[in-house]
């Protein structure tokens, strides 16, 4: 059951959403079989990329993170992924009341988890932390995640496509606000001395 439906959600999303809706899950199963395995990709790739390759800024040498600093950031990154998916699921559940039928937390968690699959998978490019490469792969992954959200919400929430469009748009807006908040909190933490420690070659 580990990573079940990942290939299907990428290749046949509408059919796969229907299969996901009909299955019985628990919160623990969603985390252990989808969110945790996929959520580890970006932190591990980022750790390798920032300690082994580093960033090339201008004509100088590569700038790398110390292993202890990269490990701390990777652990915090992984924790943020786990929390973010849960928070988005809770918001989806809360918003489902607007449509007169409050869905289970598990179903909302499945929407959040499977919508994020392209973003989880594209995290592997962080093993080579070059900005333009990450954008080149990251933007299409983000676009496909948005498509999965819009295609999945009507199926998983049992609502019409029209209501699903409005629902998905609200979820997307909340997700963008959460992202801005996460970036702002990162800046605040860095200002208190919790930023990365660099080494230079």
Characterise this structure.
The protein has helices at residues 6-11, 13-22, 27-39, 41-53, 67-96, 105-115, 117-122, 131-157, 161-194, and strands at residues 55-56, 62-65, 198-200. It is mainly α and 201 residues long. The chain has one domain (6-200). A hairpin with a 5-residue loop joins strand 1 and strand 2 (62-65). Helix 3 (27-39) packs antiparallel against helix 5 (67-96) and helix 4 runs antiparallel to helix 5.
Q: Which structural category do the helix and sheet elements fall into? A: mainly alpha
- Mean of pLDDT: 88
Largest beta sheet: what is the strand line-up?
Answer: 1-2-3
Q: Could you give the distance between the termini?
A: 44 Å
Topology, number of strands: 3
Residue windows where pLDDT falls under 50 for at least 5 positions: none
Tally of distinct domains: 1
Helix and strand pattern: HHHHEEHHHHHE
Radius of gyration: 18 Å
What share of residues are in beta strands?
Answer: under 5%
- Into which percent range does the helicity of residues fall? over 70%
Which overall shape is indicated by the principal axes computed on the Cα atoms? elongated
Number of helices: 9
Largest sheet: 3 strands, antiparallel
List keywords for this structure.
201 residues; three-stranded antiparallel sheet; 3 strands; 4% strand; elongated
Give a short summary of the structure.
This protein has about 200 residues and is mainly α.
